[in-house]
Amino acid sequence: MSSEFAKEAPFYRLKQRVRHALGPWGVFLQGFLKNPVMVGSIVPSSRFTINRVLSAVDWDNTKLFVEYGPGVGTFCQPVLDRLSRDGTLLVIDLNPDFIDYLQKTITDSRFIAVNGSAADVEEIIRAHGHEKADYIISGLPFSTLPPGVGPAIASATYRVLRKGGAFLVYQFTPRAGDFMAQFFKRIDKGLEWINVPPCFLFWGWKDED
Ligand SMILES: C[S@@+](CC[C@H](N)C(=O)[O-])C[C@H]1O[C@@H](n2cnc3c(N)ncnc32)[C@H](O)[C@@H]1O
């Protein structure tokens, strides 16, 4: 069946209608159904998680804020609402459907969405004219990443952060804390109950160059 014909099929039209009715939740659910291991969650983060994770950020001294695994952008608008007018929010996601959705729905000139892996954060920010990031937030499913990828991401993140910056992580398992502890000497921890499911929070601080 040609792809044009497939798009006319009743099932395709029904799927599009359901996705449209559910808005970003529909896009997220579809991403999860396509690749559950990569997405790692069926429900986007709650506003309690968002507010709590972002409460540690010094927004006056944030020029580059990076996000790994934005999904359908649950954190993007809250970050943009807090970010200075000359700041940049650069998001990196492996799933091209999520990046396509974000590029279509977020029109803020401070926003950049890149289809790629968080492990390549150094090359990606350099390609956009930056040497260091002030803060990096991660919604990556650390416990289901392929072997070696979690430590590689934690290590690249440590290198790319400026002194005084932080790696902000929210996770359904405490595993991310283990990867972070190899590089970050100071890690603040928390648990947010009002989230599906409740999630562990980590703030890893880069105190030295
Ligand atoms: C749990 S979802 C995050 C959802 C969203 N940030 C939220 O708060 O609702 C995890 C995301 O990580 C992305 N992802 C998985 N591995 C990745 C990698 N190595 N680099 C970048 N993104 C990745 C997935 O495509 C998915 O969008």
TrEMBL record:
InterPro entries: Methyltransf_25, SAM-dependent_MTases_sf. Keywords: Methyltransferase, Transferase. One of its GO terms (molecular function) is methyltransferase activity. It comes from the Bacteria. Residues 66-165 form the Methyltransferase domain. GO terms for biological process: methylation. This is Methyltransferase domain-containing protein. The lineage of its organism: Bacteria, Pseudomonadati, Pseudomonadota, Alphaproteobacteria, Sphingomonadales.
